[in-house]
Write a structure and sequence with these properties.
This protein is an alpha+beta fold and 111 residues long. It contains 2 helices and 6 strands. Helices cover 11% and strands 13% of the residues. The longest helix is centred in the C-terminal third of the chain and has 7 residues.
Length: 111
């Protein structure tokens, strides 16, 4: 399943800035986010990779995954479904961290 992305100390949100504390009177900082790894393989019109920010990752391999339902576009599977059903070693959930990695240029799919 999915879980919230955390930092090295287990925090799910960024520390508050002084402006957030004083001017906006917030008590919690912004969620920690990363780019959805699966979405990076799809290239949008104009040749740009699909960088979708998410605050969720796979419980097993810590791969950042978005919660977007892509059925309205050309994609059939959600990022989580694609992760769990893939046999591609770049994508498959193999309990090795993919945090901070980018998708290979030669494996990208044009939408």
């Amino acid at each position: 399943m999915l879980k919230r992305i955390t930092d090295e100390d287990g925090n799910k949100s960024c520390p508050l800035s002084e402006t957030q504390k004083t001017k906006h009177r917030k008590s919690v900082g912004s969620a920690i986010t990363a780019t959805s790894f699966i979405c990076q393989q799809y290239v949008l019109a104009g040749g740009k990779p699909n960088y979708v920010q998410t605050s969720f990752c796979c419980l097993d391999c810590k791969m950042p995954l978005c919660l977007t339902d892509w059925h309205s576009n050309e994609r059939v599977l959600t990022c989580f479904s694609e992760l769990k059903s893939s046999n591609d070693p770049t994508i498959e959930c193999n309990n090795t961290s993919k945090k901070g990695k980018r998708f290979q240029q030669n494996k990208r799919v044009i939408m």
